[in-house]
Design a protein that fits this description.
Oligomer: single chain
Number of helices: 12
Largest sheet: 5 strands, mixed
Helix content: 40-55%
Radius of gyration: 25 Å
Structural class: alpha+beta
Number of domains: 2
Distance between the termini: 62 Å
């Protein structure tokens, strides 16, 4: 028997995002009745995307996404409350998304979401599920699961194992942020940088970047655990607002409990950043730490460290010289330099 294709679908107020077998795509969540003349689609203006007509079960025809924006700007349909799930425009958006990742008919297992504030409304949940089933009808039966919507695309991949690196990243987040606090991409990048600098072999390959030390490899680690161990990372099209899932933290703690050396390094990072637990603070600390690794003069003299930080780029000139001196002193006091 053919296994249903796993689909993650969000028809949001701004964008429609879908993750299907081998493809992820995103387009503006706008739809419009297809502009026709004597039964033929009217072409978009020169240079605009070619429109694909979406035929619905009630006989209406729609266009969606960028084509709708350029072809029929006065006829756009965008409904911002729960009534949207009953609108043909919503079904058209969902059907267009499915078309982009499912070239052939096949049963589907669809994970979708709605704003958390609406999730308690059982009628709205059912209307959303019914709309997705209707949108998927040309491909075959669809099993729909509705969940409270979180940042980014819903994950339909298999849950990964809890490796030592993943446990260490979760340990950093949990140690840094009180339960319920969300961590930015900048903050987790700097925390991981310090853990690797403390001797933990994360192999993340940090490089000098605009906001300080940055690892593209860490992006792939976070992308792989989003939806399984953390929430809020998404696809980086929106600001990252990361928080760990409680069951994942428990699992990570069990892994870390068997590795005293990692716990000691996590403790060193925690002691270093005490009083610097903000995006400004950890960027400041990590930037000073980076320049003193590059420059023996900066290692010996806080004024030279301030000069090196300010020479990094325009952004780094936001850091006051006295703040750099304090960060330099913290790094010395904690024996990081």
């Amino acid at each position: 028997m053919t296994q249903p294709a796993a689909i993650g679908l969000i028809v949001g107020h701004g964008y429609t995002k879908i993750q299907g077998p081998g493809r992820t795509t995103c387009f503006p969540s706008v739809a419009a009745p297809a502009p026709t003349h004597e039964g033929h689609l009217v072409d978009a203006p020169l240079g605009a995307p070619r429109a694909t007509v979406i035929a619905l079960d009630d006989g209406s025809e729609w266009i969606a996404g960028a084509a709708a924006l350029s072809t029929a700007p006065n006829r756009l349909v965008s409904i911002l409350d729960r009534a949207r799930y009953r609108s043909p425009s919503f079904v058209a958006l969902a059907r267009e998304a499915i078309r982009q990742v499912m070239p052939d008919p096949a049963p589907m297992r669809v994970l979708t979401g709605m704003p958390a504030a609406w999730f308690a409304d059982a009628a709205a949940r059912q209307q959303l599920a019914d709309a997705i089933v209707q949108a998927a009808r040309p491909w075959g039966p669809a099993q729909v699961t509705v969940a409270p919507e979180t940042a980014g695309i819903y994950i339909t991949t298999k849950r990964p194992g809890m490796t030592l690196v993943r446990a260490a990243v979760l340990g950093l987040i949990e140690q840094y942020a009180p339960r319920g606090y969300r961590v930015s991409l900048l903050e987790i990048q700097k925390l991981a940088y310090f853990l690797e600098s403390a001797g933990e072999p994360l192999n993340l390959e940090f490089a000098k970047a605009r906001y300080g030390p940055y690892s593209e490899k860490l992006h792939h680690v976070l992308q792989g655990i989003d939806g399984h161990f953390v929430r809020g990372y998404g696809d980086r099209t929106q600001e990252v607002s990361l928080y760990p899932l409680p069951e994942a933290v428990t699992e990570a703690q069990a892994v870390l409990a068997a590795h005293a050396e990692i716990q000691a390094r996590l403790g060193r990072v925690g002691s270093l950043i005490e009083g610097y637990e903000t995006p400004y603070g950890v960027e400041l600390l990590s930037s000073v730490h980076w320049v003193v690794q590059e420059s023996p003069a900066a290692r010996q003299d806080a004024r030279r460290a301030a000069e090196a930080v300010h020479a990094w780029n325009e952004r780094k000139r936001q850091f006051r010289a006295d703040h750099i001196t304090l960060a330099w002193g913290q790094l010395h006091a904690q024996q990081w330099i």
